[in-house]
Structures are given as C-alpha cells and as structure tokens.
Design goal:
Elements: E1 8-11, H1 12-17, E2 21-28, E3 35-44, E4 50-54, E5 62-63, H2 67-79, H3 83-88, E6 97-99
Parallel strand pairs: 1-4, 2-6
Antiparallel strand pairs: 2-3, 3-4, 3-5
C-alpha cells in the first residue's frame, strides 16, 4: 500500500505571509536563446513542509543577464514584496536557482 502525500500549493504572497522561503526556482531555456522561462517554483514553510508555489504574477521572458532583477521586480510589484522579503525568502542565494 502506498501513501499519497499532497503537497501544499500557495502563491508567492501567501508563502511570504506564512514566513516561508523559496527553495528552488527552476528556469528553462533553449541553447543560444537569451531568454529564460519560469518552469516551477518550490518553497518551504518554517516547519520545513514543502510547498509548490503558483506563479500568479507576470514574469514573461526573463533575460539571462538580468533574470534575478526582473523576478525580484515582479514580486515587489505584484506580490507586495519588500527588499527585506527578497533577502529573507532566498532570492539572493545562488543555490535557489536551477537553470537548464
């Protein structure tokens, strides 16, 4: 018998309010293409519970050269993030990003 564990789904704003953090932001691109697309975002609550983060804010095509700035801007503009939120939620850490 297998046990099915449902993963909690939240928006970025809900994860921020719950004092969670981003654990992986997966970005995809084709070789030679200067743009990245957000494939998926995962996070964790303070108790360590994993969370799938819905991308409910417009990010469009992120340029490879400035993807972090563009993503941070969208979270500030559409989800009410502050500079402090950006740092606390792991957006400034290299390990948070996965680019393929």
């Amino acid at each position: 018998m297998s046990v099915v564990v449902e993963q909690l789904v939240m928006t970025a704003a809900e994860l921020r309010r719950a004092r969670g953090r981003f654990t992986r932001i997966r970005l995809l691109s084709e070789p030679g293409n200067p743009y990245l697309d957000v494939s998926s975002i995962t996070g964790a609550l303070p108790d360590g519970s994993p969370v799938k983060v819905e991308v409910t804010f417009p990010v469009g095509d992120l340029l490879r050269i400035s993807y972090r700035w563009q993503l941070e801007w969208a979270l500030r503009e559409y989800c009410g993030f502050t500079d402090r939120d950006v740092a606390k939620m792991g957006l400034t850490e290299n390990a948070t990003y996965s680019i393929r």
